[in-house]
Amino acid sequence: VSFKFSEDVGRVAENLVFIELKRRGKEAYYWKGKQEVDFVIKENLKPARLIQVSWDIENEKTKNREVNALLEGMNEFKLSEGLIITGDYSGEEEISGKTIKYVPLWRWLLD
Questions:
Q1: Which one of 44, 51, 91, 105 has the lowest number of neighbouring Cβ atoms within 10 Å?
Q2: pLDDT tens digits for 57-106?
Q3: Environment class of 29 (CB within 10 Å of its CB; exposed 0-12, middle 13-18, buried 19+)
Q4: Please, which contacts does 45-48 make with residues 24 or more away whose CB atoms are closer than 8 Å?
């Protein structure tokens, strides 16, 4: 018997985000380039927003992976802003002229 609590919480959070996007009537897709973006939200047949879900973004390796995937997708779809939904971290940073917003899951669900 082993406990993989953090992995399971991340998967549950990602599923919760997907269900909430559908509840909000959003058209959500997954995208894979060299890296993977959890959700590409389409509006009027065009990608309008990219969302990554990462429960523990304070781990530097995890943060780099999520940010790099988001930046790759933002460049591919010519978007200037991306969102990372986290367990409890909030903030914003600019990288290469692109804005990355970090929002805790509970706050995103209340928006």
A1: 44
A2: 888 999 999 999 999 999 999 999 999 999 999 999 999 999 999 999 99
A3: exposed
A4: 47/77, 47/79, 48/79
